[in-house]
Design goal:
There is one protein chain. The protein has helices at 3-36, 47-53, 55-78, 82-103, 109-112, 114-144. It is elongated. It has six helices and no strands. Helix 4 runs antiparallel to helix 6. It has one domain.
């Protein structure tokens, strides 16, 4: 892949890799928010304490959602193939669903509990895409290399 499409594919490859690296950080921030929200010495838990403790998790979640939209735009320009376009679309849709599940937390907790399951699906899809894009890059590099 050459020209502007190659440049956009390279950007996509690195951004998809960054996305996957940020996901374990997001899981960590969720766990930290939970454990920091447990009752303290005074056995009290306030809504403000919970919101404050989940602030970093929510902030990174917003960033990941924006990155998923950016990945979709970049892959539409790069046009590396149907698998990557559909994968980026699926990832963006999963992130929209993730936000909706988080927002329903107070009103419908049994639906919001799917937030964790959806996070695992996001991890799987993004891991597959990152693996595919890096493996595909190596294949293309071998195919474009002059014979020895």
């Amino acid at each position: 892949m050459s020209g502007y499409r190659g440049v956009f594919f390279t950007i996509y490859r690195y951004l998809q890799g960054l996305f996957v690296v940020l996901l374990p950080v997001q899981f960590y921030l969720a766990a930290a928010g939970i454990f920091r929200s447990l009752p303290g010495k005074d056995n009290s838990v306030t809504q403000k304490k919970i919101e404050d403790n989940f602030g970093p998790h929510a902030g990174l979640g917003t960033l990941l959602t924006l990155i998923s939209f950016l990945l979709l735009l970049i892959v539409l320009v790069a046009r590396p193939g149907k698998k990557f376009v559909l994968g980026a679309l699926a990832l963006a849709v999963l992130l929209i669903i993730q936000n909706v599940l988080a927002w329903t937390g107070e009103d419908v907790p049994w639906v919001a509990a799917l937030h964790g399951l959806n996070a695992l699906i996001i991890l799987g899809v993004s891991g597959f895409l990152a693996s595919s894009v890096w493996h595909g890059h190596r294949k293309m590099a071998r195919a474009e290399a002059p014979p020895a």
